[in-house]
TrEMBL record:
GO terms for biological process: threonine biosynthetic process. It catalyses: L-homoserine + ATP = O-phospho-L-homoserine + ADP + H(+). It comes from the Bacteria. InterPro entries: Aminoglycoside_PTrfase, Homoserine_kinase_II, Kinase-like_dom_sf, Pseudomonas-type_ThrB. GO terms for molecular function: ATP binding; homoserine kinase activity. It comes from Chromohalobacter canadensis. Transmembrane segments: none annotated. Gene3D superfamilies: 3.90.1200.10, Phosphorylase Kinase, domain 1. Pathway: Amino-acid biosynthesis; L-threonine biosynthesis; L-threonine from L-aspartate: step 4/5. The lineage of its organism: Bacteria, Pseudomonadati, Pseudomonadota, Gammaproteobacteria, Oceanospirillales. This is Homoserine kinase.
């Protein structure tokens, strides 16, 4: 269940009067999702996605709107929010902040093909290249400072071995990264898992759900993607996916020497980031709605694999898909 605030057709019909997108023909609640209420809205002029924001800081929503507008203007595969007749995107509906988006084509890939990995790597490389010029600012809420402070909330739930593992890793990150301002910065997605993309066959239909978006290390964003997109069920890398995604990415934005040297550690840090955040959901801050938390052990196991095996060599840049710009 992901419609936490039901809407009537009458409510949505009145809401749509603010926009020049036609009149409502169908309204459908979307059952997937974990935090916000989502609806598919079809009018006589097109298909849209309506999101009601159920939690989080509403004063951060203008950042997300500005970021999506910026990426859309630069022809990235994102859904720029629909603006009303007065040029305003951020609305209110049912006493909730609301945004309306064009509905992008495709489905979430469960087991990405090599072509899909290349597509995603190419799009992320393009996004990171242009996002370095985005003027908006929102600090990364899951950066190294957060890891260092949040670890203490879960220590009592861990075995002694896992307490040492987590504490030693975070100490190592602080020693290695320290002042990470020397890493290339820009606007990042912050949570670009497979289920935050849509593919029509092997073609990327769009990147969605930017609500973990922020400004920070581009390498942090890339490591999140690679850990999810190119890992096998046992936590190791699928070498072909790894090469396809990173080769396409580097064709758009080659990693600096510093990024290359810190790459294996960043893969470890982002694995620990999800181990810790999932532990917090299970033991400290359960979801507000009746949802099943994700298994923290997946990313604990991945972290151990990264410590044991490191990272494969970074591939050289490979040609970008011919249809992208």
């Amino acid at each position: 269940m992901a419609v936490f605030t039901p809407l009537t057709e009458t409510q949505v019909e009145r809401f749509l009067e603010r926009f020049a997108i036609g009149t409502l023909t169908t309204l459908e609640g979307v059952p997937s999702g974990t935090e916000n209420s989502t609806f598919f809205v079809t009018t006589d002029q097109g298909r849209f996605v309506l999101t009601l924001f159920e939690q989080g800081e509403s004063d951060e929503l203008p950042f997300f709107v500005a970021l999506l507008d910026y990426l859309d203007e630069h022809r990235l595969p994102v859904a720029g929010p629909v603006h009303d007749r007065d040029g305003v995107a951020l609305q209110e509906l049912a006493e909730r902040p609301a945004l309306l988006f064009p509905r992008l084509p495709g489905r979430h890939p469960e087991s990405p093909t090599l072509a899909q990995c290349r597509e995603l790597g190419d799009a992320l490389g393009r996004m990171h290249k242009v996002s370095q010029r985005f003027e908006g600012q929102r600090p990364n809420p899951r950066d190294l400072h957060w890891l260092a402070s949040a670890q203490h909330k879960v220590m009592s739930y861990l075995s002694e071995a896992d307490q040492r593992l987590m504490g030693d890793e975070i100490d190592a990150y602080q020693g290695i990264f320290g002042d990470a301002s020397h890493l290339p910065q820009g606007a990042i997605h912050g949570d670009l898992f497979r289920d935050n993309t849509l593919f029509d066959g092997d073609r990327l239909g769009g990147i969605i759900d930017f609500y973990n978006g922020c400004t920070g290390d581009l390498l942090f964003d890339l490591a999140i993607v690679v850990n999810d997109w190119t890992s096998t069920a046992d936590g190791n890398f699928d070498d072909a996916r790894y090469t396809a995604l990173l080769g396409a990415y580097q064709a758009r934005r080659p990693l600096t020497e510093t990024e290359q040297s810190l790459w294996p550690v960043m893969l470890r840090m982002t694995a620990l980031r999800y181990w810790l955040s999932r532990l917090l959901v299970v033991y400290v801050d359960p979801p507000a709605h009746d949802l099943t938390p994700k298994d923290p052990s997946q990313y604990r196991h991945m972290l151990l694999k990264r410590l044991e095996h490191g990272a494969p060599p970074l591939p050289s840049a490979s040609p970008s898909p011919s249809h992208t710009l």
